[in-house]
Amino acid sequence: MGVTLGRRGFLRGAVVGGGAVAFAGGLWQSAAGAAPAQPGVGPYGALGAADGNGLRLPAGFSSRVVARSMKQVPGTGYVWHSAPDGGACFPDGDGWIYVSNSEVPLVGGASAVRFAADGSVTGAYRILNLTQINCAGGATPWKTWLSCEEYDFGLVYETDPYGNKKAKAHPAMGRFKHEAAACDGDRKVVYLTEDQRDGCFYRFVPKTWGDLSKGTLEVLVGDGPGPVQWKKVPNPELWLKPTREQVAGAVKFNGGEGCYYADDVCYFTTKGDNRVWAYRAAEGVLDIAYDDDLVTSGEAPLTGVDNITGTAGGDLYVAEDGGDMQINVITREGVVTPFLEIVGHPDSEITGPAFSPDGSRLYFSSQRGASGVILGTGGVTYEVTGPFRA
Predict the structure, then answer these.
(1) Under DSSP, is residue 92 helix (H, G, I), strand (E, B) or coil?
(2) How many angstroms separate the CA atoms of 267 and 288, rounded?
(3) Angle at 205 between CA 202 and CA 208, to 5 degrees
(4) Does residue 390 lie within any of the structural domains?
């Protein structure tokens, strides 16, 4: 039986064991006794009134709608998919590309929008077809997009954001309810989250870095906060017992969601308990970076934690599934505060946050839009431009 990290049990262990979460690497700076992120004044100030696109933004930032579900992407003949979900940006000459999954059955897949250096849209196209419930994923250092299927026998598909190569399935990365992926080039592994109430946190160790067709799937094992280790999953591809149940002592997480790696730390979120976890890879230690139950004053600004990304400067951006329909920033100084809010989409979720390669533009979607219906025309994909700090 795996170890389930109950909220109160984790907090007691963190305090009693002297393992209170500290910022590590480029985002969390190690400091004895440092606490999880707390509400405070962020680097951009308060949110203003909703703009013409229904976004509340700090002063100096502006928005535009890039695409709407089941309508042609402006400037192209391509019809954007329903239920836009996980996304990432890739450099493309002087411009860039934003890819986005579609979280619908049977025809999910993924699409891409190409931008010129001035931000104008120059094209849109399909990069993955006829897959199921493509939720989140992750970018690789070799500039491919890992699109993850979120169902019990789901696969990871490696796709070409540039639209030149055929997508490939990678069964060796496991068949389970995949959510997100993050590449750790330092250890040459790919971290994977699982969207189950008793899901696990995995890493895939490819036989050759840059080729994900062969390798070993491992699961995180331990007693909760503090030192953890990895053990091989015996049957990641063809199984009668789900991957999350195959290894004794596997740590269980309540609804794994987004995943982001930077500076020896893999951050991942769990929606069932509103946490942002921090796996300190170099030390082999599991910590927690944010928990809405650990907010010591006022109301927790971040709930419904979901997709996550970060900046080169060391800030995390966490999207909400429900909550207040906000993207919150967790700063490198340990402050958590709203960065933006979508007004009038109470039955939707924010998905796919990703920065352009130069860090000046943030892309994301309201998956179901104002309608709240996952299949149809509700989804909206946005761009926000402004003085993001370095």
Answers:
(1) strand
(2) 9
(3) 155
(4) no
